[in-house]
Design a protein that fits this description.
Strand 4, helix 5 and strand 5 form a beta-alpha-beta unit. Strands 1, 2, 3, 4, 5, 6, 7 and 8 form an eight-stranded mixed sheet that branches. Helix content is 39%, strand content 22%. The termini are far apart. It has one domain: Rossmann fold, CATH 3.40.50. By secondary structure, the protein is of the alpha/beta class.
Length: 211
């Protein structure tokens, strides 16, 4: 299966989730709000909130990250990007009263971001091989690095999961946290953190650039 076919399948998959569950954590394939909040808390650790910032939510879904940041009382400009138009439309509708919330399917519309956050965008590989999906993740990380000035964070399902659990879902991608830590350290910044201690079957990597 080509990458384009895989991405089309992913588009259909998440569009159906949104239709089924609406603008909720399950609508973007999270188990529930508690797990979503735990993962968000790891991703935002890359941000210095002591001054106003612009953040790009890469694979934004319906914009739950905006609500998470807003609840913290931080001063920020938010851009949500998603390849699924239904998600972008849902995000716009849910946040139409917030002048600092912007949603688009085109990353080139984003005027520039201090930070980029990418939650759960690599988890589902559909029928793609592990090798092809890993190559896709690395190309995407290069793009993410280009789109932000101060740093970025992302999470993935971890290969340190129960073998039985992994065998049940061959459509999921379980990444090697040590491989991705090393790749980010060698290619993006000296200041890289690997978080694998928050009780879920995934890991988060923070990349802090030197300004």
């Amino acid at each position: 299966m080509s990458l384009d076919e895989t991405l089309r399948k992913l588009n259909d998959y998440f569009a159906s989730k949104l239709d089924q569950f609406g603008a909720t954590p399950k609508g973007v394939d999270y188990n529930g709000p508690e797990a979503q909040a735990v993962r968000f808390e790891q991703l935002v650790k890359v941000i210095d909130p002591s001054r106003p910032f612009t953040v790009l939510d890469y694979g934004c879904g319906y914009g739950a990250m905006f609500d998470f940041l807003h609840a913290k009382g931080w001063q920020f400009e938010y851009w949500g990007v998603d390849i699924i138009e239904k998600m972008v439309l849902a995000g716009r509708e849910a946040h139409k009263d917030f002048p600092n919330a912007h949603f688009t399917v085109d990353e080139n519309e984003v005027p520039g971001a201090d930070y980029l956050l990418a939650g759960a965008i690599f988890n589902i590989k559909m029928d793609a091989s592990y090798e092809d999906w890993r190559d896709f993740t690395l190309r995407t990380l290069q793009t993410m690095n280009r789109l932000c000035a101060k740093g970025f964070s992302f999470n993935m399902l971890t290969k340190y999961s129960d073998p039985e659990r992994m065998a049940q879902r061959p459509d999921l991608y379980y990444g090697d946290p040590l491989f991705y830590f090393d790749y980010c350290k060698r290619n993006f910044a000296r200041n890289v953190a690997l978080l694998h201690d928050y009780g879920l079957y995934d890991f988060t990597i923070l990349v802090r650039k030197e300004i």
